[in-house]
UniProtKB/TrEMBL annotation:
InterPro entries: AAA+_ATPase, ATPase_dyneun-rel_AAA, Methyl-DNA_Rec/Restrict_Enz, P-loop_NTPase. Gene3D superfamilies: P-loop containing nucleotide triphosphate hydrolases. It comes from the Bacteria. SMART domains: AAA. Residues 10-289 form the AAA+ ATPase domain. This is AAA domain-containing protein. It holds the Pfam family AAA_5. It comes from Pedobacter aquae. GO terms for molecular function: ATP binding; ATP hydrolysis activity.
């Protein structure tokens, strides 16, 4: 395990590649676990794109009038990086959650007494989503608007609560009300730690080559390079102009030093996108071989693991002997874990799992039927 950990720490980005069933995804999670890291897991697929990974425009929840709009939303990786950056921030003073809850209790109590809560220029009730709501039902416009917790928190941090700046003063009035009535502390910007011991964030991308890599990463093609982690790798994203004031990434997105990426892939999937050379050099690569991962059998198929090893080695040796196939087409030890489901029946394992996979390996071969019979013979121990 330590060799994998060292490879990740030294390079920031690691690809685990190997034949199907070698336990690459499980190994990636075990590496993160060994580091006691905060972990996020995503799986790439052909429809996965930049807006899923970095950021993009997404529909917003209907407001109280039923109107649906669009807003910029962080993708999975950018949101993860924001968490990692926050984890490296110290001396931050913030009792906002506690005081917001007290405000909601007060508004609810007032409503129970038939009263609204006056804050600034407005009399507020609550929306169905535990947000503050103003409604001018007695005016011709029948106007109403909602102030969410995030709106107020943005104003608390001296950010624009809404991209347009609308109702900013009203959000700030709520902040002042919370300070006067519930002792909300003044917001204090934290300082960024240069080094955070044992503060690891590991982002795992399963099947990393099943998406169009260059389109998914976009400008991060530059920032993921281990030599450009931190603010020196800051890049302007496609939606930089929509970032709120005070946003950590207002001046450009960058990947914090404590973020590590592990990708898993195999090269034999005919449906995957190519992994271009420029992107390849930004990752360290480690092939996971079937024989290296038989420890996964311990405590699971103990009664059959000796025979499983013989059959796996015999089958994989035969696979390599077929022109057009190689070690990337090996059968990994994870397949043999299914023996537990069949009470040790190697015949059922072949019929239900291995035969179909090997048939796909041989699809298009002129002698596929005879080759498949040869593989079955090897699996059964007769070479």
């Amino acid at each position: 395990m330590q060799k994998y950990i060292d490879l990740l720490l030294n390079n920031k980005n690691l690809i685990l590649t190997g034949a199907p069933g070698t336990g690459k995804t499980y190994l990636a999670k075990e590496i993160a676990k060994a580091l006691n890291a905060v972990t996020e897991f995503v799986q790439f697929h052909p429809s996965y794109d930049y807006t899923d990974f970095v950021e993009g425009l997404r529909p917003t929840a209907p407001d109280d009038n039923g109107n649906i709009g669009f807003g910029r939303k962080d993708g999975a990786f950018k949101e993860f990086c924001r968490k990692a950056l926050k984890a490296n921030t110290t001396n931050k003073v913030d009792n906002f959650d506690e005081t917001w809850d007290k405000l909601l209790v007060l508004v609810k109590d007032n409503l129970a007494s038939g009263q609204l809560t006056k804050i600034g220029s407005w009399d507020f009730s609550l929306s169905t989503k535990d947000s503050l709501k103003y409604s001018s039902t007695n005016t011709p416009s029948q106007y109403n608007f909602t102030i969410t917790k995030q709106n107020v928190y943005d104003a608390y941090q001296n950010k624009k609560a809404r991209p347009s700046g609308a109702f900013q003063k009203d959000m700030e009035d709520v902040v002042e009300y919370m300070k006067e009535n519930f002792q909300l502390k003044d917001y204090q910007e934290g300082t960024i730690l240069q080094e955070a011991e044992n503060n690891f964030f590991v982002f795992i991308i399963d099947e990393i080559n099943r998406a169009e890599i260059s389109k998914v990463f976009g400008e991060l093609f530059f920032s993921i390079d281990a030599g450009y982690r931190g603010e020196k790798g800051r890049v302007k994203t496609q939606y930089t102009n929509l970032q709120n004031d005070g946003n950590d990434f207002k001046e450009g997105f960058y990947i914090p030093e404590n973020v590590y990426i592990i990708g898993t892939m195999n090269d034999i999937d005919r449906s995957v996108e190519s992994f271009d050379f420029a992107m390849r050099r930004r990752f360290a690569w480690k092939e996971i071989k079937a024989i290296d991962r038989i420890s996964m059998w311990d405590g699971v198929i103990d009664d059959w693991k000796d025979e499983a090893l013989k059959r796996m080695l015999s089958l994989n040796t035969k696979i390599e002997s077929i022109q057009g196939l190689n070690s990337a087409f090996h059968i990994g030890p994870a397949y043999f874990l299914k023996l537990k489901n069949y009470e040790g029946s190697f015949d059922q394992l072949w019929d239900n799992h291995l035969e179909g996979l090997l048939f796909e390996y041989l699809r298009g071969f002129p002698d596929s039927d005879s080759r498949l019979n040869e593989l079955k013979t090897a699996y059964e121990g007769v070479i």
